[in-house]
Design brief:
5 helices, about 85% helix
Length: about 110
């Protein structure tokens, strides 16, 4: 694949992120909390496995990356409220502050 095609695949894939965010509002409360998180994780892993072995097919790579972005964002937004309820407030705030601080160091 050329550099232009690779950038186009990445651009097409990035449009899956907002779709995944909206999809999480429908998936998040189906079957409790753990079932959607586990199902999305398995689908995400399966999609990544297919993507890695897709070869140089432009259409397949672009569509798979779009699906991977959808599944990744949907899983992330499904996990967020569950994680907030799993830990005490002081631990959440300390971890959140530390992650924000380390994230700023990376930029």
């Amino acid at each position: 694949l050329s550099q232009t095609q690779s950038l186009l695949i990445t651009t097409i894939g990035s449009f899956g992120a907002p779709v995944g965010v909206f999809l999480s509002s429908y998936v998040g409360d189906k079957g409790g909390r753990k079932i959607p998180i586990a199902a999305l994780g398995l689908l995400y892993g399966l999609a990544l496995g297919v993507y890695v072995n897709a070869g140089n097919n432009f259409a397949m790579l672009a569509s798979l990356l779009f699906i991977i972005q959808i599944l990744g964002m949907c899983a992330s937004f499904t996990i967020m409220p569950y994680m907030a309820e799993s830990f005490p407030t002081t631990m959440r705030n300390t971890a959140s502050g530390a992650l924000n601080a380390f994230g700023r160091l990376c930029v």
